[in-house]
């Protein structure tokens, strides 16, 4: 898709829009062998040079961020009831938009992934990919071993059969007991409904892992962080997609004005 040339070159990290406009005005930029003019457009298929050197005007590399969602935020772009949304706290994008990889309900906190790559989001959310979701669950009361076995074997909910793939005890005192559970689906309130099917009340629910990405302990509520190199690579592999690390664009400066040579003596 063609866009204004100065915008594309600025997005590629070659300089500010004002700098790029100056280069174009000085005749330093060509598109498909012709000297560019202010207002010209170009796309990824065009051959663009600055000072005779070819440059890439490809779309920015995809991004993925981890967001630590607090309770009380909704996973929508706008809420008719005026409640805060998770999108309000994400970094601003120069182009494109953030797509949430799955959802968390109002009373659930924890890990949410957002990406600018729609294909990645669709692959990870598709049931055929079978991405594990891990939750820390605090329940009220004692859970008998027979209940654990039933939740692992499967129960019938109003929207069909469901079960946990794994349940691990995680401590607790008094009436509160913690468990870590994993499942490969993302149906609405599925974790809560599974426990409630056995007459057990969930008092707190935190998603701590989505596929190969961990929430960790260093990310505070309401904050986000970019995925690191190895995390991006592993996440794309899990989705069955190839990922190439972004190349750093080299800043190309216009030629300096050369002063005249000093007179010979």
Describe the structure.
Residues 3-60 form the RNA-binding S4 domain. GO terms for molecular function: 23S rRNA pseudouridine(2605) synthase activity; RNA binding. It is an enzyme of class 5 (isomerase). By secondary structure, this protein is of the alpha+beta class. The chain has two domains: 3-55, RNA-binding S4 domain (Structural Genomics Hypothetical 15.5 Kd Protein In mrcA-pckA Intergenic Region, Chain A, Roll); 64-228, Pseudouridine synthase. Helix content is 19%, strand content 27%. The protein contains six helices and 17 strands. The protein has helices at residues 5-11, 17-25, 118-125, 145-153, 190-196, 229-238, and strands at residues 3-4, 29-31, 34-35, 41-42, 48-50, 53-55, 64-69, 99-101, 109-115, 133-140, 155-157, 160-162, 166-169, 176-183, 202-210, 213-214, 224-226. Strands 7, 8, 9, 10, 13, 14, 15, 16 and 17 form a nine-stranded mixed sheet that branches. Helix 1 (5-11) packs across helix 2. It is elongated. The termini are far apart. Mean pLDDT is 87; it is low at 248-265.
Topology:
Blueprint: E1 3-4, H1 5-11, H2 17-25, E2 29-31, E3 34-35, E4 41-42, E5 48-50, E6 53-55, E7 64-69, E8 99-101, E9 109-115, H3 118-125, E10 133-140, H4 145-153, E11 155-157, E12 160-162, E13 166-169, E14 176-183, H5 190-196, E15 202-210, E16 213-214, E17 224-226, H6 229-238
Parallel strand pairs: 9-15
Antiparallel strand pairs: 1-4, 2-3, 2-5, 5-6, 7-9, 7-17, 8-9, 10-14, 10-15, 11-12, 13-14, 15-16
Helix pairs in contact: 1-2
């Amino acid at each position: 898709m063609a866009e204004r040339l100065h915008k594309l070159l600025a997005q590629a990290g070659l300089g500010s829009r004002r700098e790029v406009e100056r280069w174009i005005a000085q005749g330093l930029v060509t598109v498909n062998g012709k000297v560019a003019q202010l207002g010209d457009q170009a796309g990824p298929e065009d051959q663009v040079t600055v000072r005779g050197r070819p440059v890439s005007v490809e779309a920015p590399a995809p991004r993925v961020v981890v967001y630590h969602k607090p309770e009380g935020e909704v996973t929508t772009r706008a809420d008719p009831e005026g409640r805060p949304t998770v999108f309000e706290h994400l970094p601003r994008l120069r182009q494109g938009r953030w797509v949430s990889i799955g959802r968390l309900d109002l009373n659930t906190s924890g890990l949410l992934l957002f990406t600018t790559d729609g294909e990645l989001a669709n692959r990870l959310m598709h049931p055929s990919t079978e991405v594990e979701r891990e939750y820390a669950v605090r329940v009220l009361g004692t859970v008998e071993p027979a209940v654990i076995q039933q939740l692992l074997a499967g129960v019938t909910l109003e929207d069909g059969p469901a079960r946990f793939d794994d349940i691990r005890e995680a401590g607790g005192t008094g009436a509160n007991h913690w468990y870590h559970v994993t499942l490969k689906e993302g149906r609405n309130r599925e974790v809560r409904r599974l426990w409630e099917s056995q007459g057990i009340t969930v008092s707190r629910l935190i998603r701590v892992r989505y596929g190969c990405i961990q929430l960790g302990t260093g990310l505070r509520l309401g904050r986000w962080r970019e995925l690191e190199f190895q995390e991006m690579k592993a996440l794309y592999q899990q989705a069955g997609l190839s990922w190439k690390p972004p190349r750093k664009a080299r800043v190309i400066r216009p030629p300096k004005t050369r002063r005249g040579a000093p007179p010979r003596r």
